[in-house]
Amino acid sequence: MRILSSMLVASLAMTISPAIAQTFTGTLGGGLGKLVVRGHTGSLSVIAPNCAGSLDNATVEHTGNAFMLSKQTDDGQGMCDVRITVSGNKIMNSHETMACTAYHGGSCDFETFVPLH
To answer: Which residues contact 6 (CB under 8 A, 6 or more apart)?
Structure first.
């Protein structure tokens, strides 16, 4: 009986508790980028000297150390897809489709910034 009650409590806790958020940071579009993933939903933001943008409530697919965020643009004309590779809690690489401009404008992007040496 004790095992059954423990299983019931654990089952209810999983049902009531939201997924634990994972947070990753790095340089995107020449500014500070932040990815927050909670289960199959995520948000991505960038804050740079001359712009800011965010992709909120995107659908997330996760495979290994890669995340794919996807969201239909508000005008329904395109799909914003951002593929992000992480290591630990750092954003290592990011690439977006052109439709993502709807979420950050033309002054910045969700791409990783690699300085030229």
So the answer is: none
Whole-angstrom distance, CA of residue 79 vs CA of residue 48: 23
Contact in structure between 104 and 29 (CB atoms under 8 Å): yes
Residue whose C-alpha is closest to residue 67's, from 42, 52, 84, 80? 84
How far apart CA 86 and CA 93 sit, in angstroms, is 7
Each residue's pLDDT expressed in tens, for the chain with a length of 117 residues: 444 344 333 443 444 345 789 999 999 988 899 999 999 999 999 998 888 999 999 999 999 999 999 999 988 889 999 999 999 999 999 999 999 999 988 888 898 865 554
Q: How far apart are CA 44 and CA 71, in angstroms?
A: 11
Contact by Cβ (8 Å): 113, 25: no
Determine the residue type at 108. Answer: C
Q: Alpha helices, DSSP H only, in 1-117?
A: 2-16
d(C-alpha 99, C-alpha 81), whole Å: 8
Length of the chain counted residue by residue: 117
